[in-house]
Amino acid sequence: MSIKALKGFKDILPDEVGLWQFIENTARDVFHRYGFEEIKVPILEKTDLFVRTIGESTDIVEKEMYSFEDRNGSSITMRPEGTASVIRSYIEHGLYVRGSVQRLFIIGPMFRHERPQKGRLRQFHQMSVEVLGSNSPGIDTEVMAMAWQILQEIGLHASLEINSLGCTACRPSFKEALQRFLQERIKNLCEDCQRRSSTNPLRVLDCKSEHCQAQYVSAPSIIDSLCGACSHHFQEVKETLNLLKVPYAVNAKMVRGLDYYTRTTFELLTNELGSQGAIGAGGRYDGLVQQLGGPEVPGIGFAMGMERLVMLLSQKKDRGETRSGSDLFLVTLGEAAYAKGFVLLHRLRSQGLRVMMDHEGRSMKNQMKQADKQNAGFTLILGENELANHKAPLKNMHSGEQELIDLTPELENWAALIKKKIGQ
Ligand code: HAM
Q1: 263 has a pLDDT exceeding 80
Q2: Each residue of 14-29: pLDDT tens digit?
Q3: To test ligand 1's pocket by mutation, which of 10, 81, 89, 275 has the most ligand atoms within 8 angstroms of CB?
Q4: Has residue 216 got a pLDDT over 70?
Q5: Distance 278 CA to ligand 1 centre (A)
């Protein structure tokens, strides 16, 4: 029996890779313009890192992590997200000494043992950014504007929803008020909400059950419970988003699935992917660096799910990826031409051209077909006559134009000559 990939794990095949590269290159370009630097962190970390950051009573930690004992008996986990690892690295290597504000990004796979469905995988990829070292609401706006910019340049549209989850000064009293509200209705809530009302009450607010949601219409609002400083921060974020003309809606019921958030949180949503509508999400996490043993450094970031971006883009006709093709296909006929072609192939490639040829002794017709399939820009035909006459036809495969080019007797000169002819 043949072995298949694991459930929820997906191969990204050559035909799809163009879209992935387009998205990644566009994002990298935007990151660069916004002053972000790449950091690469390991996929495996100590389990404790995620338990302490994401939170013990979150779905991710309770039931979705790929955790196992390594050969030394210590518990390790395949990262379910990137923020915890970036902060661990930031503290471990004292990156704060490089400057008071660090702007970092990672691109790579994440692992969550969720039920696979459209747009939800067990191995998925995120582009994840973090800004460490600034309390300013302007940074919150900058980060959201950057996410917005990436989507614009990729050619996708999403709606931005924002909220504030307050801080250690104001959230506890909101939590208590919400718990009192939930207790009064506990019998009418779904099982999940009943359990969460004591373990993680804020999470009830994004319960999917319509019945629960109908009751939460009159639930206390986090925005009404913000302390003066958090309220002021949120106001500034909204005003600066207005200044930049980034459209948003406030959603006071948006709570995030990770416990580390404080103040500003946000999600980028689409209704084109069924129930998995979040194409990106993030927020502030002041206090997290300190909680992990680092200095008192505030932070904010977000991550975009690349599979979801690829899915959205593949539904569009006028998407921006370029189909990769070769610059030239060398059609050779006969042993002598094959030998010369083989040397030419190598020389042209070392001069920076993407060149292909046939090694199977196929007929001219079949070699031309291959050139077509590979989306070659040009073909050059080399046969006995061409070698004898020192002239070979170079065909522009897009325009159909053909030109006989002079080949000097010395093979050394051919590569430069052809390169010039095909305008590379
Ligand atoms: P998150 O909301 O858990 O946040 O994930 C961010 C994005 O990753 C989601 O909006 C979604 O597009 C994508 N995603 C999550 N799970 C899956 C899945 N199973 N399959 C496909 N895509 C998925 C975080 O991970 C935070 N670390 C974001 C952050 C960075 N906050 C601050 N800095």
Answers
A1: yes
A2: 989 999 999 999 999 9
A3: 81
A4: yes
A5: 8
Nearest CA to ligand 1 atom 18: 120
19 lines ligand 1 (CB under 6 A): no
pLDDT for 81-133, tens place per residue? 999 999 999 999 999 999 899 999 999 999 999 999 999 999 999 999 999 99
The pLDDT value given to residue 173: 93
- In three-state form (DSSP H/G/I as H, E/B as E, the rest C), the secondary structure along the chain is CCCCCCCCCCCCCHHHHHHHHHHHHHHHHHHHHCCCEECCCCCEEEHHHHHHHHCCCCHHHHHHCEEEECCCCCEEEECCCCHHHHHHHHHHCCHHHHCCCEEEEEEEEEECCCCCECCECCEEEEEEEEEECCCCHHHHHHHHHHHHHHHHHHCCCCEEEEEECCCCCCHHHHHHHHHHHHHHCHHHCCHHHHHHHHHCHHHHHHCCCHHHHHHHCCCCCCHHHCCHHHHHHHHHHHHHHHHCCCCCEECCCCCCCCCCCEEEEEEEECCCCCCCCEEEEEEECCCHHHHCCCCCCCEEEEEEEHHHHHHHHHCCCCCCCCCCCCCEEEEECCHHHHHHHHHHHHHHHHCCCCEEECCCCCCHHHHHHHHHHCCCCEEEEECHHHHHHCEEEEEECCCCCEEEEECCCCHHHHHHHHHHHCCC
Cα–ligand 1 centroid distance for 302 (angstroms): 8
Residue 302 Cβ contacting ligand 1 at under 6 Å: yes
pLDDT above 70 (res 320): no
CA-130 nearest atom, ligand 1: 33
Q: Whose Cα sits closest to atom 20 in ligand 1?
A: 120
pTM of the model: 0.91
Residue 255 Cβ inside 6 Å of ligand 1? The answer reads: no
| The ligand 1 atom nearest the CA atom of 280 | 10
Is residue 36 lining ligand 1, measured as CB closer than 6 Å?
A: no
